[in-house]
TrEMBL record:
<protein>
    <recommendedName>
        <fullName>LL-diaminopimelate aminotransferase</fullName>
        <ecNumber>2.6.1.83</ecNumber>
    </recommendedName>
</protein>
<feature type="binding site">
    <location>
        <begin position="247"/>
        <end position="249"/>
    </location>
    <ligand>
        <name>pyridoxal 5'-phosphate</name>
    </ligand>
</feature>
<feature type="domain" description="Aminotransferase class I/classII large">
    <location>
        <begin position="36"/>
        <end position="401"/>
    </location>
</feature>
<feature type="binding site">
    <location>
        <position position="109"/>
    </location>
    <ligand>
        <name>substrate</name>
    </ligand>
</feature>
<keyword id="KW-0808">Transferase</keyword>
<feature type="binding site">
    <location>
        <position position="72"/>
    </location>
    <ligand>
        <name>pyridoxal 5'-phosphate</name>
    </ligand>
</feature>
<feature type="binding site">
    <location>
        <position position="288"/>
    </location>
    <ligand>
        <name>substrate</name>
    </ligand>
</feature>
<dbReference type="InterPro" id="IPR015424">
    <property type="entry name" value="PyrdxlP-dep_Trfase"/>
</dbReference>
<dbReference type="InterPro" id="IPR015422">
    <property type="entry name" value="PyrdxlP-dep_Trfase_small"/>
</dbReference>
<feature type="binding site">
    <location>
        <position position="288"/>
    </location>
    <ligand>
        <name>pyridoxal 5'-phosphate</name>
    </ligand>
</feature>
<feature type="binding site">
    <location>
        <position position="384"/>
    </location>
    <ligand>
        <name>substrate</name>
    </ligand>
</feature>
<feature type="modified residue" description="N6-(pyridoxal phosphate)lysine">
    <location>
        <position position="250"/>
    </location>
</feature>
<comment type="pathway">
    <text>Amino-acid biosynthesis; L-lysine biosynthesis via DAP pathway; LL-2,6-diaminopimelate from (S)-tetrahydrodipicolinate (aminotransferase route): step 1/1.</text>
</comment>
<feature type="binding site">
    <location>
        <position position="258"/>
    </location>
    <ligand>
        <name>pyridoxal 5'-phosphate</name>
    </ligand>
</feature>
<comment type="function">
    <text>Involved in the synthesis of meso-diaminopimelate (m-DAP or DL-DAP), required for both lysine and peptidoglycan biosynthesis. Catalyzes the direct conversion of tetrahydrodipicolinate to LL-diaminopimelate.</text>
</comment>
<comment type="subunit">
    <text>Homodimer.</text>
</comment>
<feature type="binding site">
    <location>
        <position position="132"/>
    </location>
    <ligand>
        <name>substrate</name>
    </ligand>
</feature>
Amino acid sequence: MVQINSNFQKLPGSYLFSEIARRVAAYAQANPDRALIKLGIGDVTLPLPAAVTAAMHAAVDEMATAQGFHGYGPEQGYSFLRDAIAQQDYQDRGVNIQPDEIFISDGAKSDCGNIVDLFGPDNKVAVCDPVYPVYVDTNAMSGRAGEYDEKSGRWTNLVYMPCVAENDFMPDLPGEEVDMIYLCFPNNPTGAAATKEQLKPWVDYANRTGAVLLFDGAYEAFITTPGVPHSIYEIPGAETCAIEFRSFSKTAGFTGTRCAYTVVPKALTRQGASLNAMWNRRQCTKFNGVPYVVQRGAAALYTPEGRQQAKDHVAVYQNNARVIREGLANAGLTVSGGVDSPYVWARTPNGMGSWEFFDLLLRQANVVTTPGAGFGPSGEGYIRLTGFGETEATRQAVERIRNVL
């Protein structure tokens, strides 16, 4: 008889956002007259920038001709996009990342999950707490997480690094030696942003111990505070210890179009093996590449028009986050984030549980949020709200919440 991967059987319940969707669907079905406003899942609401759609239309026309048709493309991504990323996202910032260190993919979520293919099953993994669930669940599926403890809400083999109000939502270095460290800045879900001074000890630690930093920079476009780096590679020494994930989903509306990239420097080696070469082999074996039309759309973001249009979109979401942050603070909630991040992290009132407050806002305000407990034990007592909603709907949602409070 075939043997299944028993690690899947250890996963608790359903994926966080699937459970939210289930509860919201049940409520909407029972209350069809209620107009819900969704500030939970971080999906965008603005359409693709005009420069992107124009480039995609032109690419579709190309595909309709014998001369312009593209079949299988390079698994690593087309050079026109990799070159633009290397130049504008890195080299123009003084960071020496080359095109062949950049791999185009269909999403940062996919790559954050797939990257574990490069690492052995006995590696010790450290995650921030609260944490984006993909980091934890994919390591649990691969057998690194151990057993799930229902009482504590933690996996026995993972090292949890609390990100709480007492440390300004910035994790301390782990008290024991670990091999893989997930960092996400600006952070999902807390909205905290890390300075160069705060990131340097992590780079030093990884280079000293041989660990690898898995750095999720999906929200770098929202950074406005001086001194906050846009890439882990702005920290000296990061090229020998860090892999970086970026995405066009939240910065340019690609949630339904799917395009992102991962940077694996050639200088990053472990046990004599090049992780760049390993990731290249993994992608060539398991991935057929992002469609030509989509990559042409992404490349348009590196034109002056496309870059400005993307900035305009980000500005709308930043303003939404400000409206949420200020509105909830004026209503008496303790809030953080929403400055260098599209996410606002709000403490629940009167010691209320995360899911309890989620249900209260769903039923009484008809506003969908994300319960902090779904991001890990240290997320209990918080909810996350996103600035990705429509502007007027965001304003109405804040007003509804204030009325309930």
